[in-house]
Amino acid sequence: MRDRTYDRTYQQKLFAQRTPYLQWLSAQEDMERTLDRPDAGKQICTLPFSSCMDKVSGYGTFLADAVYLFARTGGSLTPGAERVIAEAFGDHPETALVYADEDYCGSLSALYRIDDETAQGKTYRGAPWFKPDFSPDTLYSFFYLGSVFAVRGGALLGITGEHGKDISLYELVYWIFREVLMKERSRQESEVVHLAKVLYTNDALASADWLDGAGQIKKLYQTEVLPEEPVSVIIPSKNNAKILRRCLETLIQYTAYDRYELIIVDNGSSPAQRTQIEQLLKEAAQKKPGLETIYLYEARPFNFSAMCNRGAQSASGSYLLFLNDDIEVMDTGEGAGWLARMVDIARRPHVGAVGAKLYYPPLQDEKGPYRIQHAGIANMGIGPAHKLGGMVDTGCLYHGHNTQNYDMLAVTAACMLVRKSVFDAAGGFDETLAVAYNDVAFCFGLYQSGYFNVQVNEAVLIHHESLSRGQDTAPDQRKRLAEEKARLYAKFPAFRAWDPFYSPHLVQWKRDVDYTANYLYACDQLLLPRQMPDAERRKLTGRHGETGILGKIYDRMTGYHLLMVHIDSVEQEEETVTINGWCVQRARSNAGISRQLCLYHIDMAYLFEIPPKLREDVAEVFAADGRTTQTALSGIQVRFERRSLWRGRYRIAVLFHGKQLVFAADDKGGQIEIEI
Questions:
Q1: Could you give the angle at the alpha carbon of 580 between the alpha carbons of 575 and 583, nearest 5°?
Q2: Which of 421, 588, 633, 671 is 20 to 30 A off residue 301, Cα-Cα?
Q3: DSSP-derived secondary structure letter, 594
Q4: How far apart are CA 527 and CA 479, in angstroms?
């Protein structure tokens, strides 16, 4: 009976771990039920549409005091959606347009990769589409409002009165956005309202990758080809002539844009390297007749912001392109248009900084699609993070974040284009941010001043990331990184854990490239440690800290450890620590096993309860072992605040059943330790 209870509880926990969106949805619905709000009483008229290209004229006569709710065919509004939308208009009389989030319905297998014979054709909700706030440049790419939006009758009549009733729904929204763009940020936010609520469910999961209007929108507003405007390409570089050579050669050879100058900013190359760089510029001028080159040399400590600012001061172009020296232009006809595409976007009066999609260079013998290094910066709860980093650039990743141009709060200065007038008005890069977050701070400032920063995924380059400066992995580098992040948010406190283009319903506390629903399981939450009494600690480990006999249990018949612990990673942020891994007891069911993470040193030990954590990969490893079962929830993910422990160096172990301690070892048999 006890085993059946453990098994039933295990299956319930396993289902919950495999369906994070269903858990998030349940929590949201519980919250909504606690809100007793009277009916808004606003007249709502619900109208069906099949595509954003449907004609407005097909809906007949409109009334100024009504609200028209457009809901896509092939799905349904969630209960109470009309009331929620009516309230949004009622709360703000100036609101012209409201749109909301949506999700999809399908089988457990299609949505969550769960094969459940008991489901018997039942459908579930999943694949949520959490949309950004007011995003004019995203709208210029595809109809990102999706399947549910509403327009005030007065605004609808105003647009059709000026542009005619024969316009499409897309054009209706386009002209509303154009009018709103002319207003201050606070007015924009009240006139186009994004409700961060799921108010519509699509019936066809297969349509999730369909970007409504993506192929037609560009044809609607194609303008004549404008003449090239002068661009100043500013490249900070020091002692890196070999890498810089590849950057300059590919820039000149493969870029289908003629009107630019080169400015190399050098903060102290060696004499030999300086000579090589001067030679590179001479060769560049020979390969591209008429190319102006400037070499700014001054030996000084590395300060990326200062180097960029100095280059900008010497620039004569109308546009500034900040480019890392480890960027490589791709040798493709499509890739050649990268700079022209960026300039086309940067011409828009409301646009501030423009970024490009950056690829990691392919590994040796690697074939197939490139892996993404950068597709914009999201300002998450943990701070600024590159989105889609490491993902293979294939298909449609989270509604076109890899294929369409998107408004983003920030883009990387590894390749950033901005009008010189905008750069100068913003005061350039913050030179107190010498290494990191200078591009983020610059973009924050632009958005705060009313500009929109755009991730241009039509412009694609290869980035040999951190070849010039290296990675920030050493303790002193991590400390400096934390200090610069603190300085960033001290300067822009309103942006802490807030991003208008990254929904609060998406994961905030860890780096997440998949755009996952922000549901916190017990393993995702910060845990409090329990200090282990000395007598208990000595009993388990021995008086002097050596591993006790209970920590060395073997299966005498097979020679394998019965208790297995593996630590995958120890992620240390400035305030928190996250330990990831897994632990299994062999030759038995792992349902109901008591597990605690132990952080131990000679004078003290702390215990953390290990909540269930889904590890499908571990379950696959033990699938063939008929005696070792129920291992899918064997993951370790323990998060805690640094300040909850005394400082020191700790060994990592797992305590099974409250009495069997197993210390984690690396692949060479060495102890895994952590410095707090």
A1: 145
A2: 421
A3: -
A4: 24
Report the C-alpha gap between 100 and 145 in whole angstroms. 8
Report whether 550 contacts 647 (CB < 8 A): no
How many residues in the chain? Answer: 676
Cross-strand pairs, 526 = 639
Closest listed residue to residue 22, CA positions, set 119, 88, 99: 119
Assign 3-state DSSP to the chain and report helix, strand, coil percentages, each to 5.
30, 30, 40
Rg (C-alpha) for the chain, rounded Å, is 28
Q: How far is residue 30's CA from residue 34's CA, in Å, rounded to a whole number?
A: 7
Sequence-distant (6+) residues with CB within 8 A of 650 are: 599, 600, 601, 606, 673, 674, 675, 676
CB of 599 closer than 8 Å to CB of 606: yes
466 pLDDT higher than 70: no
Please state, in angstroms and rounded to a whole number, the distance separating the CA atoms of residues 234 and 115. Answer: 54
Task: Give me the pLDDT at residue 41, please.
Answer: 45
Give yes or no for a contact between 379 and 439, defined as CB atoms under 8 angstroms apart.
Answer: no
- Mean pLDDT (the chain, rounded): 90
Amino acid at 251: L
Closest by Cα among 370, 459, 480 to 414: 459
In the numeric block, the tokens 């109901």 are attached to 592
Sign of the four-CA dihedral 65, 70, 76, 79: negative
Say which residues have a Cβ less than 8 Å from residue 373's Cβ, sequence separation at least 6. 358, 359, 360, 386, 389, 390, 463, 465
Of residues 648 and 2, the one with the higher pLDDT is 648
Distance CA 339, CA 343 (A): 6
Extract the tokens encoding 594.
């008591």
Between CA 25 and CA 268 the distance in angstroms is 56
Q: How far apart are CA 585 and CA 631, in angstroms?
A: 9
Residue 4, helix vs strand vs coil: helix
Burial class (CB in 10 A: 0-12, 13-18, 19+), 326: buried
Q: d(Cα 351, Cα 137) in Å, to the nearest integer?
A: 9
Give 639-670 pLDDT, tens digit per residue. Answer: 999 999 999 999 999 999 888 889 998 877 78
223 band by pLDDT with thresholds 50, 70 and 90: low
Contacts (Cβ under 8 Å, ≥6 apart) of 456: 341, 342, 345, 354, 355, 356, 357, 405
Q: Strands 67-72 and 44-49, how do they pair?
A: parallel
Q: What is the strand order of the sheet 576-585 is part of?
A: 563-572, 576-585, 635-641
Residue 551, token pair as written in the block = 């920590």
pLDDT in tens, 111-170: 998 887 666 678 999 999 999 999 999 999 999 999 999 999 999 999 999 999 999 999
pLDDT score for 545:
42
C-beta of residue 654 within 8 angstroms of C-beta of residue 565? yes
- Residues 501 and 376: their CA atoms lie apart, in Å, by 11
Helix (H) or strand (E) holding 541: helix 534-541
φ and ψ of 75, to 5 deg: -175, -170
Of 56, 60, 68, the C-alpha closest to 154 is 68
366 with 482: CB under 8 angstroms? no
- 200, two tokens: 């519509």
- Give the strand pairing for 148-152 and 67-72: antiparallel
**CA proximity to 405, closest of 353, 458, 358:** 458
The residues near 534 (Cβ < 8 Å, ≥ 6 apart) are none
Question: How far apart are alpha carbons 224 and 35 in whole angstroms?
Answer: 53
